[in-house]
Amino acid sequence: MALMIKGFEFNIFGETTYIVWDDTTREAAIVDAGMSNDTERYTIDSFIRKNELKIKYLLNTHIHLDHTFGVPYARERYGVKLSASPLDAPLAERIEQQAVLFHLPFKPENIVIENELHDGDIIRLGQEKLQVIEVPGHTPGGLAFHSPDAQFVLTGDSLFHSSIGRTDLPGGSHSALIRSVTERLLSLPPCTKVYPGHGPATTIEHELHYNPYL
């Protein structure tokens, strides 16, 4: 059986949190935990409980506050450590400062990257796997998670439906992002489904032909 995936739109930024799991063993990963209130936390917990999932990983494509609101909760609730690129560690230490930048009326917690992920790493869920692809540009440590067997890739805020991520925030680089998307993501098979950090899913084929930024 291939990996399964489910997305949930959370918080005031409309961020998409994903759960990816092996349908045989029920081993699962939470990707970009953006839950920001009790209702959103209940939604995630209910889905995990209903599907009898065993949370094995807490993964982040990058460290911006809208993708990390739920990290402290998920870490404690499911006993998993945060896995992300060490290049985004400075951003993890400044979540509170990011909140000030966006004038948020609440104070999210700073976080710590406990397990470092690097290009080519393999994340195993049962007999299935996700491959780590480094895609710097939106942040210095941007990552994508690719399932060649299930033919999908989680791109965070690097690649969207007919768009790309912003690069005007601290650590962003437009030239690096363009290079990451064109060389690391658009080189995947055209049929690959793209699950971004915001907005609707797309495919590599669609972005090759219709993305005006590339």
General form: globular
Q: Count of DSSP E strands?
A: 14
Quaternary structure of the protein: single chain
Low-confidence stretches: none
Rg from C-alpha positions? 16 Å
Distance between the termini: 34 Å
**Strand fraction:** 25-35%
**Major β-sheet, in short?**
6 strands, mixed
The helix-strand sequence is: EEEHEHEHHEEEEEEEHEEH
Coarse structural class? alpha/beta
Describe this protein with a few key phrases.
single chain; 214 residues; alpha/beta; 6-stranded mixed β-sheet; 14 strands; 29% strand
Overview of this protein structure:
By secondary structure, the protein is an alpha/beta fold. 24% of the residues lie in helices and 29% in strands. The chain has helices at 38-50, 71-78, 89-92, 95-101, 174-185, 204-210; strands spanning 3-10, 15-22, 27-31, 54-59, 82-84, 115-116, 122-125, 128-134, 143-147, 152-156, 159-160, 163-164, 193-196, 202-203. A 6-stranded mixed sheet has the order 1-2-3-4-5-6, covered by helices on one side. Strands 7-8-9-10-13-14 form a 6-stranded mixed sheet. Helix 2 links the parallel strand 4 and strand 5 (82-84). The mean pLDDT is 96.
